């Protein structure tokens, strides 16, 4: 079993907007996605986001126990035991995740809030201790390159 590509996107101005953009990018690549949230309220918040961003449409999604889940490209849920194996997993929690064998990419999105950055550094070290090799992508630097 190979390890997933573990990516920390950091220097993010708007974490929610970045999530929607990155989910949209993965969808455009034909990938199936899980957004693992920390709670039922966080799942509802991500649900609302994916209905409103981008403004010209929505990103098709549902909870893990929805009858349409097997046919829906994005699953948003906080119940780890219900989450299906998907190519891309977004960690929308403050803890580390243990990626499923089928996970090709595990994504962390870190905004500029100092507390969030400190928690992300802890997660980075935890992933390293678990034998994963995280890599960092500076979104501000990417944006400045055009």
Describe the secondary-structure layout.
Elements: E1 5-12, H1 15-28, E2 33-37, H2 40-52, E3 61-62, E4 74-77, E5 88-92, E6 105-111, H3 114-129, E7 134-138, H4 139-145
Parallel strand pairs: 1-6, 1-7, 2-4, 2-5, 3-4, 5-6
Question: Keyphrases for this structure?
Answer:
146 residues; alpha/beta; Rossmann fold; seven-stranded parallel beta sheet; 34% helix; globular
- Percent range for β-strand residues: 15-25%
> How many β-strand stretches?
7
Largest sheet: 7 strands, parallel
Spatial shape: globular
Q: Gyration radius, to the nearest Å?
A: 15 Å
- Counted up, domains total 1
Question: Could you tell me the mean pLDDT?
Answer: 91
Q: Detail the poorly predicted runs.
A: none
Order of helices and strands: EHEHEEEEHEH
Helicity level: 25-40%
CATH-level-2 architecture:
3-Layer(aba) Sandwich
Find the CATH superfamily: DNA polymerase III subunit chi
Class from secondary-structure proportions: alpha/beta
Terminus-to-terminus distance: 36 Å
CATH fold description: Rossmann fold
- Order of the strands making up the biggest sheet: 3-4-2-5-6-1-7
Number of helices: 4
Q: Using the coordinates above, name the CATH class.
A: Alpha Beta
